[in-house]
């Protein structure tokens, strides 16, 4: 037997799929939000961290490989975990993936007005429509946006849209 072991779950029936950006500046806040605010315990959710959160779902024609990978991953868990009843989508302020995409594919071409945060919130709405239209069963879908709550960027608020 190995010297050190870690806890595992013999069985799990996740009820929620959580899609978010794994930016290390937001990791602790996201983890606490999942447990404290969403009330989910280990085994009750599937974490799907993608750079940019739902960014890759917003540009299927311009970023087809990114879109396919992210969408196939999402669909896999929904299709293979019939216990999933809810999807939580989280984007965050100052996302570096969005900044990189903006330079790469002129991300704001479709919406010439507004700032990057506005675009990220619109993308959450688009991802909601995608899940509602394509996934073959009724899921509750919640949208959240994380932002800095103080000038030092040491506090984060995660607000429901």
**Rg over alpha carbons:** 16 Å
| Count of individual domains | 1
Strands side by side in the biggest sheet: 2-1-3-4-5
Q: What is the CATH top level name?
A: Alpha Beta
Distance between the termini: 48 Å
Tell me the strand percentage band.
Answer: 15-25%
CATH topology (fold) name: Beta-carbonic Anhydrase, Chain A
Mean pLDDT: 87
Number of strands: 5
Succession of helices and strands: EHEHEHHEE
**Dominant shape:** globular
Classified in CATH, the superfamily is Carbonic anhydrase
Helix fraction bin: 25-40%
Give the low-confidence spans.
Answer: 108-112
Main β-sheet description: 5 strands, mixed
Derived from helix and strand composition plus strand pairing, the structural class reads alpha/beta
Q: What CATH architecture would you give?
A: 3-Layer(aba) Sandwich
Short description:
With 161 residues, this protein is of the alpha/beta class. Helices cover 35% and strands 19% of the residues.
What does this entry look like structurally?
The chain is α/β, with parallel strands linked by helices and 161 residues long. The protein has one domain (16-160): Beta-carbonic Anhydrase, Chain A. It contains 4 helices and 5 strands; from the N terminus they run βαβαβααββ. A 5-stranded mixed beta sheet has the order 2-1-3-4-5, sandwiched between helices. A hairpin with a 7-residue loop joins strand 4 and strand 5 (156-160). The longest helix is centred in the last third of the chain and has 19 residues, at 116-134. The model is unreliable at 108-112 (pLDDT under 50).
């Amino acid at each position: 037997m190995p010297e050190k072991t870690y806890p595992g779950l013999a069985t799990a029936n996740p009820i929620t799929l959580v899609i978010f950006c794994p930016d290390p500046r937001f990791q602790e806040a996201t983890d606490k939000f999942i447990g404290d605010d969403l009330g989910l315990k280990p085994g009750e959710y599937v974490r799907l961290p993608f750079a940019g959160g739902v960014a890759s779902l917003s540009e299927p024609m311009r970023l087809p490989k990114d879109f396919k990978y992210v969408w196939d991953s999402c669909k896999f868990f929904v299709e293979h975990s019939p216990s999933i009843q809810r999807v939580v989508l989280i984007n965050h302020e100052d996302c570096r993936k969005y900044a990189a995409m903006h330079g790469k594919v002129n991300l704001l071409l479709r919406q010439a007005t507004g700032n990057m945060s506005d675009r990220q919130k619109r993308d959450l709405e688009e991802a909601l429509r995608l899940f509602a239209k394509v996934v073959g069963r009724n899921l509750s879908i919640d949208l959240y946006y994380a932002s800095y709550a103080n000038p030092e960027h040491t506090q984060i608020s995660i607000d429901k849209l």
